[in-house]
């Protein structure tokens, strides 16, 4: 990758694009090259407010970004309902695709996007940032250690935040024509991915949505949960909500140990993150404590997780450009499995909380 810098274009000026534009600047293999919005004025203001270089291109349409021959890759933070149009068009324009989550409204739409990427030889990755934090790799090493963790038996994940009244009234994530999956698509993408990650991305046999989901007046999910079941006896649950206090937990329990963390989506601190593990713990005499006590592991990073994501995506794109490598299939596969589970949970909700098989 020495001397290679992937030129990024950004489609849209969503709030999350501010974070990713900073990540593109911080990553050693990427350049903020262009931004497009529905108006030139909005794109120009976004570029100015977010430190784009003076040489960056500013466009008054998304098409203009995709038509720029010097743009290597695009980051697409548009509402989910627009993903299928702009992601497919980007792929046909030979632009590598970093796509905000949820990747699509359903797996049928996602398959159209992934087929366009595959047939055009472009790299696809969804923007699930925590997957790229070095802490995530260290935690995975522990889960894969049969001597310390044993066999996975259960996973519980939670991602909630208490949205303010303006969010609950006006944010795109509560609008049925923009992000119809609501909290399930936004926060549930993270909790579902956490469960799959802990289970080595083995799909569950079935899911059951938990009773008591909360909907807004337009029928968009504000809060929900689900249970997942595997044929070998593993179980998992998750809860996601726009109407509960900020929480982002993963608890994975094995036959010999457990793993727990409180900030898996956004670490408490940008340059370091921690997790705790316990191995063959038991009670002290008279049940007054634990022995041995759980241990804390701190992982430092020279780049925030979103910059690590951009760095890895840019590395893959650079390999395709300079070495004629094939696009990495891992990332589209993980996106599709996550989408399959969200689809099944939505069906379970719609059918009155029936058990629904997850069919790949």
Automatic annotation (TrEMBL):
Domain of life of the source: Eukaryota
Domain Gfo/Idh/MocA-like oxidoreductase N-terminal positions: 6-125
Domain GFO/IDH/MocA-like oxidoreductase stretches: 145-259
One Pfam family of this chain: GFO_IDH_MocA
- Tell me its family: Belongs to the Gfo/Idh/MocA family.
Mind telling me what this protein is named?
Gfo/Idh/MocA-like oxidoreductase N-terminal domain-containing protein
**Which species expresses this protein natively?**
Cinchona calisaya
């Amino acid at each position: 990758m020495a001397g290679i810098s992937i030129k990024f274009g950004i489609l849209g000026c969503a709030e999350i694009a501010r974070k990713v534009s900073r990540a593109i600047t911080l990553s050693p293999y990427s350049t903020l090259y262009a931004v497009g919005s529905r108006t030139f004025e909005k794109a120009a203001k976004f570029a100015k407010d977010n430190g784009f270089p003076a040489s960056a291109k500013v466009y008054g349409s998304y098409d203009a970004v995709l038509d720029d021959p010097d743009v290597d890759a695009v980051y697409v933070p548009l509402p989910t309902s627009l993903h299928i149009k702009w992601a497919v068009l980007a792929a046909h324009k030979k632009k590598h695709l970093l796509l905000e989550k949820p990747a699509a409204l359903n797996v049928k739409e996602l398959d159209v996007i992934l087929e366009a990427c595959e047939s055009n030889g472009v790299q696809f990755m969804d923007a699930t940032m925590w997957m790229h934090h070095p802490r995530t790799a260290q935690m995975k090493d522990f889960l894969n250690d049969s001597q310390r963790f044993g066999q996975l038996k259960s996973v519980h994940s939670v991602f909630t935040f208490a949205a303010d009244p303006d969010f609950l009234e006006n944010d795109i994530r509560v609008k049925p024509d923009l992000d119809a999956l609501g909290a399930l698509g936004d926060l549930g993408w993270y909790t579902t991915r956490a469960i799959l990650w802990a289970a080595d991305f083995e799909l569950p046999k079935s899911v059951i949505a938990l009773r008591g989901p909360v909907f807004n007046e337009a029928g968009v999910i504000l809060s929900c949960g689900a249970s997942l079941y595997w044929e070998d006896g593993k179980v998992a649950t998750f809860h996601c909500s726009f109407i509960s206090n900020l929480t982002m937990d993963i608890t994975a329990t094995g036959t010999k140990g457990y793993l727990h963390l409180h900030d898996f989506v956004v670490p408490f601190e940008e340059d370091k993150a921690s997790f705790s593990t316990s191995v063959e713990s038991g009670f002290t005499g008279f049940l007054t404590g634990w022995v041995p006590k759980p241990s804390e592991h701190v992982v430092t990073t020279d780049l925030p997780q979103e910059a690590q994501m951009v760095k890895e995506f840019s590395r893959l794109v650079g390999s395709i450009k300079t070495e004629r490598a094939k696009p990495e299939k891992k990332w589209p596969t993980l996106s599709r499995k996550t989408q399959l589970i969200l689809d099944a949970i939505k069906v379970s909700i719609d059918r009155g909380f029936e058990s629904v098989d997850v069919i790949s």
